[in-house]
């Protein structure tokens, strides 16, 4: 199978570019997630690939088979793209049984009855729904409907599988199981998959690569580790793992380290610093990386807890210091409101401050 | 439930190899260049445009020609309008039309809205069957209702004479503008009732509950929260009823003629058909064009008034129905009032038709059972012309109902559920016949068949009637199918498209089966509308293609009220049977 290529894809609604000049290559067999807040253009991109939305300009192709080319006026209708799509609402046809739901795409492909029956059977077994072939969708639970929807999208062996937040209608516990199962299935079938979600933990758990999107643009494209450990910008740092942000100034660099000064004059050391930044900076620090400490020292700041919340596995504290606010997670409750916090040098991510910082 | 089977992948593993080896089967999906969906889009758009323009273009032409449309020597002129405004009595006709329309709208709205609140929201005894009876007038034509009123409340009507013989005074005069307004208004009240009922009974119960929680009593909550939410329904039905009144022919004709009270429609009818000499085509065309413009303006106004009515939309998700208000000791008093209304304006009117049909002479002075006879029905049943009109009516309603449902379904699907670029314009065109009064549609098609070469073939057949009726009621069908369609999530069509189905396959295999209940309701509604329609037919029928309504008008002109009532009774009975069957067998929803 061939790679999916999006080249300079733009989708405009009136004056607004819902998808703004994005380029992306998805190698055959990859599980790629489009992640971002609502309105970032991820679903719009997905539906443009499926053909259900028409793009404005750019190209969409798989290998040398062109689905859309704005310049040449090519737009292959969705029904001729042979793509599998699982909808957020599953979109099972309510008047057809589970088996009939799977049968319909095969009938459209003129697959003979015997062949059809065996494919329906194997498709349902793949999602462990073989027993439910004669049920109607309303007789199934949400999780079961989701599996049937997946089976329906796979039964005709599409060249590409698109998933539009397929787990968002499941309850939390089922969702975690389903995503493991989904990933295993995808690996076994080795079908190229584009997955759309706004849930960062889901994205981190299932993806080969993640494209973090905002305002119609890809902010960062990388493996889950890249995205979490090395966010390309403050938006990504904030969206994945909701970092704390502190404004600071670069004072100097030495031996790979950076000396930073906060607004009140406090000095901090960071263990790494991008070469390109200078002057006004913004520091991103994840709440779970900040430590409480008893003794003053390097990278230790004084702060006062303004609010604490018990979240079960951790305690989360809002605290205010001289010119900064922090969210900090601790494993135990804190008795005194006046605390000292240590920010490890390796926990500090540095971005240039500016209008686009966030 | 997922966990139980998650670990067992053995069977599945064997299949995986298959998936990789077997080729993608998309050969069957390759298109050969011919796109039948696009062909359907354009054909439907062209057909709809043709059907809607069909009756309008000839009228617009005729209004500016000095001779009949078919006369080759006719030349363009604006003189028709001049002759129209200087026509004797034209000012009075305009004034009559406005007074009649205003009066009947007021009566319709007041009674309809009151009935909606009382029946929809209080513990009125018998609210179920009272509500049923209240919508009866919608099932039959104004012609039937007008005859019913005439029989009971006319100058020599049964009730009128009874009251006069007891009290010595004539209590009312239906042959007056106010009499006409009352009759027309009460026959249109069910429409206002239904629309307001929808608004008050479907209102979200939580909104009134919220009012109660901040301290409002139950009646205050109803009055301050729910009644204002009737406003869009009230505005909408007000304009609708005003339009209906302006284009109404039966009541002005039957009640206005004796005292020479003319409205625009009876003027058109008179000039277009009954004119002793050759009909004055120019003046008729000009008057028709003006009527068309006025109605189109009113429908446009209705749309404007409804802008922003979203703030009254409360039906979101699964709202629970609001609780009924306890009328307390007023309960039976209100019941008496509603019952009297239903009994005197609906039950008696229908009963009057049946009574008149069953006797040789209807008068309160002689017990009616001594005058019982079957000769009125015999006359109908033994006259081939009359029987043919019944057969034609049924045939037109059946054929037209089926064809109309299919046509409107396709129009709705193309305009609401397709990638057709002209979807919005198509919807506008399809809804335009709301502005097309029946008398204009009839006149327009009448001109069209004599004007357009080739159309002569269907002239004077039931097919021209089917065509004209269909055009008139496209919006009715659209209004039934579109809301049902909106209930079907569009991801169901998208799912079919991505599975490899083109638009037409998606529509026929996925949407149409899901739409089936709405399609049955549409058929039932179209059948009823076609069955009671007569205004559109008055210019179009010829011996051989007469329908019940036109035959009733002819019999009335001869002064034969017995056979007229017999024919009306037959129409009511057939309608009743159809409604029962449609509700039982087809599960059709007709008026609530």
TrEMBL record, chain A:
Q: What does the entry give for GO biological process?
A: quaternary ammonium group transport
Q: Give Gene Ontology CC terms.
A: ATP-binding cassette (ABC) transporter complex, substrate-binding subunit-containing
Could you tell me the keywords of this UniProt record?
ATP-binding, Cell membrane, Membrane, Nucleotide-binding, Translocase, Transport
Q: Name one GO molecular function term.
A: ATP hydrolysis activity
| SMART domains named in the record | AAA (SM00382)
Where is the ABC transporter domain positioned along the sequence? 4-240
Q: Which residues form the signal peptide?
A: none
Domain of life of the native organism: Bacteria
Q: Which family does it belong to?
A: Belongs to the ABC transporter superfamily.
Task: List the PANTHER family.
Answer: MALTODEXTRIN IMPORT ATP-BINDING PROTEIN MSMX, TREHALOSE IMPORT ATP-BINDING PROTEIN SUGC
**What name does the UniProt record give this protein?**
Iron(III) transport system ATP-binding protein
| Protein's organism | Bosea psychrotolerans
TrEMBL record, chain B:
Q: Where are the transmembrane segments?
A: 39-61, 93-121, 133-154, 174-196, 233-255, 281-301, 332-355, 394-414, 426-450, 462-486, 507-531, 562-582
Q: Where in the cell is it found?
A: Cell inner membrane; Cell membrane
Q: Does the keyword Membrane apply?
A: yes
Residue span, ABC transmembrane type-1 domain? 94-302, 390-582
- Entry-linked SUPFAM superfamilies: MetI-like
For this protein, the record's CDD domains field holds: TM_PBP2
Record GO cellular component, one term: plasma membrane
Membrane topology term reads: Multi-pass membrane protein
Q: Which PROSITE patterns match?
A: ABC_TM1 (PS50928)
User: What InterPro entries does this protein's entry cite?
Assistant: MetI-like, MetI-like_sf
Keywords of the record: Cell inner membrane, Cell membrane, Membrane, Transmembrane, Transmembrane helix, Transport
Q: Indicate yes or no for the key word Cell inner membrane.
A: yes
Biological process terms from the Gene Ontology for this record are: transmembrane transport
**Top-level taxon of the source organism:** Bacteria
The text of the family note is: Belongs to the binding-protein-dependent transport system permease family.
The name on file for this protein is: Iron(III) transport system permease protein
Organism, by scientific name, is Bosea psychrotolerans
């Amino acid at each position: 199978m061939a790679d999916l290529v999006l080249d300079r894809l733009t989708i405009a609604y009136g004056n607004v570019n819902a998808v703004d000049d994005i380029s992306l290559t998805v190698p055959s067999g990859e599980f790629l997630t489009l992640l971002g807040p609502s309105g970032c253009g991820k679903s719009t991109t997905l539906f443009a690939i499926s053909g259900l939305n028409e793009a404005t300009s750019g190209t969409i192709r798989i290998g040398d088979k062109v689905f859309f080319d704005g310049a040449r006026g090519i737009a292959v209708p969705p029904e001729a793209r042979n793509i599998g799509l699982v909808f957020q609402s599953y979109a099972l046809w309510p008047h057809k049984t589970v088996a009939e739901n799977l049968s319909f795409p095969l009938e459209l492909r003129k697959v003979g009855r015997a062949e059809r029956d065996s494919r329906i059977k194997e498709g349902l077994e793949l999602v462990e729904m073989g027993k439910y072939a004669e049920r109607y969708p309303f007789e199934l639970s949400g999780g079961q409907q989701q599996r049937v929807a997946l089976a329906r999208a796979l039964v005709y062996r599409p060249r590409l599988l698109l998933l539009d937040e397929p787990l968002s209608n499941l309850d939390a516990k089922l969702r975690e199981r389903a995503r493991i199962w989904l990933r295993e299935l995808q690996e076994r079938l080795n079908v190229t998959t584009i997955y759309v979600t706004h849930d960062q933990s889901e994205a981190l758990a299932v993806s080969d690569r993640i494209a973090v999107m905002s305002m119609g643009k890809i902010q960062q494209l990388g493996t889950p580790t890249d995205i979490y450990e090395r966010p390309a910008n403050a938006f990504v740092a904030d969206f994945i793992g909701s970092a704390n942000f502190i404004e600071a100034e670069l004072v100097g660099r030495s031996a790979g380290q950076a000396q930073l000064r906060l607004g009140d004059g406090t000095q901090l050391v960071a263990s790494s610093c991008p070469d390109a930044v200078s002057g006004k900076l913004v520091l991103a620090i994840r709440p779970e990386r900040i430590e409480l400490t008893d003794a003053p020292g390097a990278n230790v700041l004084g702060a006062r807890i303004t609010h604490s919340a018990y979240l079960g596995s951790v305690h989360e504290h809002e605290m205010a210091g001289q010119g900064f606010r922090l969210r900090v997670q601790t494993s135990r409750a804190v008795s005194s409101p006046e605390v000292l916090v240590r920010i490890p040098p390796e926990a500090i991510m540095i971005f240039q401050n500016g209008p686009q910082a966030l | 439930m997922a966990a139980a089977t998650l670990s067992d992948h053995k069977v599945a593993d064997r299949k995986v190899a298959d998936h990789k080896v077997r080729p993608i089967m998309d050969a069957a999906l390759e298109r050969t260049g011919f796109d039948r969906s696009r062909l359907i889009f354009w054909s439907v758009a062209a057909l709809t445009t043709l059907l809607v323009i069909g009756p309008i273009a000839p009228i617009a032409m005729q209004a500016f020609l000095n001779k009949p449309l078919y006369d080759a020597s006719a030349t363009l002129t604006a003189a028709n309008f001049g002759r129209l405004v200087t026509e004797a009595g034209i000012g009075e006709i305009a004034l009559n039309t406005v007074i009649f329309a205003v009066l009947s709208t007021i009566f319709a709205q007041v009674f309809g809205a009151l009935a909606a609140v009382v029946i929809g929201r209080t513990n009125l005894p018998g609210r179920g069957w009272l509500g049923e009876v209240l919508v009866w007038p919608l099932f039959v034509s104004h012609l039937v209702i007008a005859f019913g009123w005439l029989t009971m409340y006319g100058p020599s009507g049964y009730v009128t004479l009874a009251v006069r013989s007891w009290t010595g005074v004539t209590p009312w005069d239906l042959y007056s503008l106010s009499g006409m307004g009352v009759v027309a208004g009460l026959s249109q009240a069910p429409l206002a009732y239904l629309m307001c009922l929808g608004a008050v009974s479907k209102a979200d119960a939580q909104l009134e509950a919220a009012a109660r929680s901040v301290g409002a009593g139950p009646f205050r909550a109803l009055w301050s929260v729910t009644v204002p939410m009737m406003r869009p329904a009230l505005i909408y039905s007000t304009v609708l009823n005003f339009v209906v009144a302006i284009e109404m022919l039966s009541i002005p004709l039957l009640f206005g003629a004796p005292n020479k009270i003319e409205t625009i429609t009876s003027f058109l009818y008179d000039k277009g058909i009954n004119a002793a000499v050759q009909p004055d085509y120019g003046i008729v065309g000009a008057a028709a064009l003006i009527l068309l413009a006025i109605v189109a303006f009113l429908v446009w106004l209705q749309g404007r008034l409804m802008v922003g009515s979203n703030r009254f939309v409360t039906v979101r998700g699964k709202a629970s129905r609001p609780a009924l208000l306890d009328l307390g000791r007023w309960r039976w008093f209100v019941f008496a009032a509603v019952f009297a209304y239903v009994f005197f304006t609906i039950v008696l009117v229908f009963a009057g038709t049946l009574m008149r049909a069953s006797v040789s002479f209807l008068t309160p002075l002689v017990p009616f059972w001594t005058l019982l006879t079957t000769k009125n029905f015999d006359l109908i049943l033994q006259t081939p012309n009359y029987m043919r009109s019944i057969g034609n009516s049924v045939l037109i309603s059946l054929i037209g109902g089926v064809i109309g449902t299919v046509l409107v379904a396709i129009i709705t699907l193309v305009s609401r559920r397709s990638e057709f670029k002209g979807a919005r314009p198509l919807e506008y065109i399809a809804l335009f016949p709301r502005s097309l009064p029946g008398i204009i549609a009839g006149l327009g098609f009448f001109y069209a068949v004599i004007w357009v070469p080739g159309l002569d073939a269907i002239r004077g057949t039931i097919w021209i009637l089917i065509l004209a009726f269909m055009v008139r009621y496209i919006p009715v069908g659209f209004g039934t199918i579109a809301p049902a369609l909106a209930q079907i999530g569009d991801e169901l069509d998208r799912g079919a498209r991505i599975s490899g189905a083109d638009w037409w396959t998606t529509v026929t295999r996925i949407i149409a089966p899901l739409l089936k209940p709405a399609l049955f309701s549409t058929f039932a509604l179209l059948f009823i509308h076609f069955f009671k329609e007569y205004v559109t037919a008055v210019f179009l029928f010829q011996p051989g293609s007469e329908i019940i309504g036109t035959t009733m008008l002819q019999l009335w002109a001869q002064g034969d009220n017995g056979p007229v009532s017999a024919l009306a009774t037959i129409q009511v009975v057939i309608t009743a049977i159809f409604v029962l069957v449609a509700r039982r067998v087809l599960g059709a929803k007709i008026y609530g």
